Amino acid sequence: MPLQIINGDITKLKVDAIVNAANSSLLGGGGVDGAIHRAAGRGLLEECRTLNGCRTGEAKITGGYNLPAKYVIHTVGPRWRGGKYGEAELLASCYREALKLAVANGCGSVAFPLISAGAYGYPKDEALDIAVKTIGSFILQCDLEVFLVLFGARPKRTEREIADALHEFMPLEVCEAPAEMTKCIDFVHVANKKTFARGLHDEELKRRLAYADESFSEMLLRKIDELGLSDAECYRAANVDRRLFSKIRSDKNYKPSKQTAVAFAVALRLPLEEAKELLAKAGYALSPSRPFDIIVEYYLTRGIYDVHEINLSLYKFDQVLLGAQNVV
User: Which of 47, 144, 158, 255 lies 20 to 30 Å (CA to CA) from residue 25?
Assistant: First the structure.
């Protein structure tokens, strides 16, 4: 999974590089900056003294010293001043410049903290949105595994709390109580089913019958060819690792996780009914009673196919992310 949002201690991750949310001096500080300097040891501070600081929105690289990571990429995030002083672009620049350095130094994996969301006061939801969208856009062009590491586990919400939050999130008559989640039916979904039934002409029926025996892998590969996509364009848009895609390509009977199957439907930009058809090939369906399925269907019915935007919503509702086999 190229982009994962996890909870944990960034100083303990075995990745090629970790990113330090540094101050402009690069000489250490509080929060994640201090934790990285303490874990890396004095050698990191000595090398940082040679760098002559760093400007906001830029990045510099050093060795990892006593850290499991080979490199530390230092970047200086903006202080929050109400959002009227270019903070969003500066924050996005931090992620882009750090990613460029990771690629330039041959890194295959890199871990970020949530930059500027601590002492610098950037609102956490906005900081997370910028991080995910900036990283997501960058990794469409390369095979790079990225971890966005949030310190400390979030408290899990009850099903009732998720249902209430879903009700506020989308304009649906849904989720009045956990026991009634089976009533959570998107009116757009109902309308789409009727429209589809009316529009199923003979040619479409013949096409479906011709491909009735296709496996998930066979249908996926056929769709990729029909759309003129390269393998890399597809698996990157799905937030799926290249190695996993290779398994799917080489095994016509490969059964993906539901999250991976949905991710490919998003990457292929399939209309809702075709997405359901692809899911059915893997033995899955979208249920009107499950928060994950409700969120996915909400985006598909509106033609929104940005996997990272969908994952942001899934993360906020404590759901497994698209492309995931297992998520920490």
Answer: 144
Contacts 24+ apart (CB under 8 A), 173-182: 174/294, 175/294, 181/289, 181/290, 182/288, 182/289
Question: For the chain, how many helices (H) and strands (E)?
Answer: 14, 6
Catalytic site positions: 33
Could you read off the pLDDT tens digit of each residue along the chain, which spans 328 residues? 799 999 899 999 999 999 999 999 999 888 999 999 999 999 999 999 999 999 999 999 999 999 999 999 999 999 999 999 999 999 999 999 999 999 999 999 999 999 999 999 999 999 999 999 999 999 999 999 999 998 765 656 666 667 677 766 665 444 443 444 434 434 334 444 444 445 555 665 665 655 568 999 999 999 999 999 999 999 999 999 999 999 999 999 999 999 999 999 999 999 999 999 999 999 999 998 899 999 999 999 999 999 999 999 999 888 999 986 543 3
Instruction: Please count the CA atoms within 13 angstroms of the CA of 158 that sit on its side-chain side.
Output: 6
Q: Is the dihedral of CA 53, 55, 56, 58 positive or negative?
A: negative
Residues 261, 275: Cα–Cα separation, whole Å: 9
Return the closest-CA partner of residue 20 out of 60, 49, 70: 60
